[in-house]
Amino acid sequence: MGKRGPNKLPVAVVKAKGTYRPSSHPDEMLESEALEFIYQKLPEAPKSFPPLAVKCWNAQLAQAMQLYGYISFLDLKVFEEYCLTYALMKTLEDADMHYEDANGVRRITPEFKEYKEAKRDFLALSREFGFTPSSRTSIKLQQKKTAEKFDEWDENI
Asked: Could you tell me if residue 78 is inside a domain?
């Protein structure tokens, strides 16, 4: 079932309006400025990664780091699972679907079952990171804190 109702306003806006309720905004970590996002420097892939996982890591993070607030450093552990699942799925992609047992009955191969499971996990993780078109619409990017002209003017006084 999809998310219902209008999108929630950021905590700062709601507090400014005077309608802030802690029960409506449980994710204080995202709203705080404590999270560090991947923005200008691509983190290195873990040394234990197979080549396909490294390729996925570099390609996806290169795109994601162009948008400030898309992936934080806290997300990298789950992103590692995303890349490893991609590598497993691509490795098993060419597995045979069926085999015949001793009685001549067609059965699904264990490799194909593992491929289907990896593909399901990959799609679930893709949705978590907003890598599918429908899940991308619910992603809210954290805005970079910039000094406003008024702040600069106040400092010069």
From this structure: yes
